[in-house]
Amino acid sequence: MKRRQFLRQSGLAAAGMLTLQLPRLGFGKQPYHGVINPEHNIPANKSIDPAWVRSLYERGKPTTYTRQQNELKYIGMPAGGLHAGTVYLGGDGRLWLWSIYNDEREGVDPKSVWWHDGNSEREIRNRDGASYLEPAIAANKRVLEQGFAILVKQGNQTWLKELREEDWEQVTFEATYPTATIRFRDPRMPVEVTMRAGGIFIPLDADNSALPATVFDISTRNITAQPLELSICGWLENGARKLTGKPSEGFKRNTGMATESGILSSFQYAAAGKGNYPDDGTTCIACISDNVRLNTNADVWPVREGVFAAGQSTADKPADEKLVAAVSTAPSTVQGGKEVQVQYVLSWHFNHPLKKVAKIKDAEEGYYYGSRFQHAGEVAIYIRRHFRELWGATLQWRETFYNSTLPYWFLERTFLNIGSLATANTYRFKSGRFWGWEGVNTCEGTCTHVWQYAQAAGRIFPSLERDTRQRTDLGIAMEQNGGIIFRAEYENRPAIDGQAGAILRIYREHLMSGDNNFLTANWPRIKQAVLFMLAQDKNNDGMTDTPMENTLDAVWEGEIAWIVGLCIAAAKAAQLMAEEMNDSAFAGKCREYVEKGGANMSAHLFNGEYFIHRPDPVQGRRKLGSYNTCHIDQVYGQSWAWQVGLGRLWNKEQTLSALRALWKYNFTTDVGPYIRTHHGGRPYALEGEAGMIMNTNPHNEAKPYGEDVTWQLGYFHECMSGFEHQVASHMMAEGMTDEALILTRAIHDRYHGAKRNPFNEIECSDHYARAMASYGTFITACGYEYHGPKGEMKFKPAFGARDFRAPFTSAEGWGTFSQHLTKERSTHSITVKYGSLKLNKLTLDVRGTGALKKNKVRIGNKTLDVSWKQQEDQLHISFPATIRVAANETLTIESTT
């Protein structure tokens, strides 16, 4: 189905709303029965407490949800590997959802709910925001029996408690993706338990980050002065054929892997051969310790001391009964004040692609992890044998990312959306091809005009994005004329914003490469894609005006600022790539387009306050469009430019004016009054919540959206977080830091654990890809620019510059950047924690420091010869020969006046 077929198959018949019965495929023309021209009612004065705004800049502490505040029931942090299904880590450390069985239904919790939008009650499907209105609850989605328990003996007392919310007086969840920290406290217990859990997650290592497994790292501290005896038990139900297994077909089997401290769970068929069932596979639980007891047939209803004992090496049960594997540590003595640490791995293996992706030939042979491992036991063994390397790097990234001077809440919100890659929203097939929905099981084809907003994957797992550009955008999806079909196998035409976004992403993927090979190998087809985009400017004024599909699911006529600007940005990226390829003729062609387009955009698409949609001279306003209204993406091209170092593309003051207009006319601290009077939008923000409306009519024009208003107008009245994130990233880059932080915090608060799952930003279904635009705000907060092949890096923090520290990623390594500035001295350092960093040039921030006279540059104790110059508030360091900073090395630049 095409993306977000807005309220399309809902069978709605209520008055005053969209009464749609549309075909399953294709966009039929439908009337809009909402209120078309209500008064603009977003107050210009936001009345925000200045003290609260100042608090947004504070470092603070990790966002912590608690049992006492009833904040744990919705929490579902993606806790498996990339593209390995959706397994959620709950607020009390138990796993839930278990969407590993190749479920064909939309969303993590497919359902329809009813909502009154102020005009009428209407049915809302999963793709239209059902999960926002009624989030999934962990207790209702524990598909597999799973958990941990501790057995404590001290003197003549014995305590047996499960690590779950009901058994402890205090349970807290620290939301620091990719690993969370759950703490269990009870004044009646002589121990405190701390659990760190999540999937293997190592930036730049897409293979090891895609292991279908969750790691639990459990530390138990004796908080008394006396010694005690401790044992820990973990268990996992046999998940093979969990949903479809029948006793007539075979039986469940648990097999102990004594040398690997684990138990493999499988389904044994009674007769030769087996069907192609989506839940046909294996699960496994293993402990990293060698001194364990394996119980292949554990009784955990409830957990008793006997569960901790060893059992038979193999156990079988009928297909319709539960069979649980338990692995326990042998009792150990823990002295007063000391702690003991144990780690578990829970893995799964269900190598059956969805029928819904049958058009993709790459899907026929299964998933990428299926090509690496034959069953879940092999996954667990691999992790167990490389545990220090894999889990160590995961924890090192978590420490590196959050060891920053940026606010914890800001780091969390801008990063956590990359967890969408660790859900059933994405796949990686045996061929290595990456593929994604827009939202879980909704709107297929790694849609170019949605995924182009997502900035996270290109910086954290650039190899996936490079392969997608080369294999799909420039390969499977490319037409002979250079057009890129925006859903590859699932469409037959390009989308203009997706085309421009693909070119910009190609440039980003080049920047995140260690050499020029990606650009060189793909240059002929890149040129084709660019030429197709340039050809959509029919009157040769640098402003595309060919009617084509866009991300709001319509074909708009005329010259549309956000599409014009996006194409200008793409042409600028193409110009820079052409210059690197020594293709001066093509670089000149692109430069002319950029200069002409930028000048004409400023002259003709700026209404004195913000950028607009100029109607087609023939069609006029006959069709749906944004016209003279205030549209959220109006300067999106410049927003993209700051992500990839393109510089200023058109008039600065006009751009700032447009952003201020968005703040004035589109941002509201309470969307309630707006959605009560502007009907038809989906509920991605509710009464009492803040957000930025997609498109508003600040001048109360009659028929502001055209003469033929269709169902797509509903989008204009929504708050979609992916669009909000891109605006926040742009505001951050332009010095509007208060507004950027407030907008980001509005999203953060909409997804507070007391109301819904903090890790699931929803648009068209769950874990929507566009929300990964949030990482762009982190990029602009750091003022980060990088060119891997040239070995160039730049930092200019947007706030907190005098004492600043933040993580960075590059083509071949990642680590920490820091700076300390005074009037007399500036100190900058780059510490590589993983891989290495190639450098030829650094551009650093020296705001507030006087005229510099001396510079000392060194790696460790080795002083380097460099050339340098100071230009106003920037310090340029050039190395006479390429340097490479290795893991655990620090490059330091000390400058004095």
TrEMBL record:
One of its GO terms (biological process) is carbohydrate metabolic process. One of its GO terms (molecular function) is hydrolase activity, hydrolyzing O-glycosyl compounds. InterPro entries: 6-hairpin_glycosidase_sf (IPR008928), 6hp_glycosidase-like_sf (IPR012341), GH116_catalytic (IPR006775), GH116_N (IPR024462), Non-lysos_glucosylceramidase (IPR052566). Residues 76-387 form the Glycosyl-hydrolase family 116 N-terminal domain. Gene3D superfamilies: 1.50.10.10. Residues 497-774 form the Glycosyl-hydrolase family 116 catalytic region domain. SUPFAM superfamilies: Six-hairpin glycosidases. This is Uncharacterized protein, contains GBA2_N and DUF608 domains.
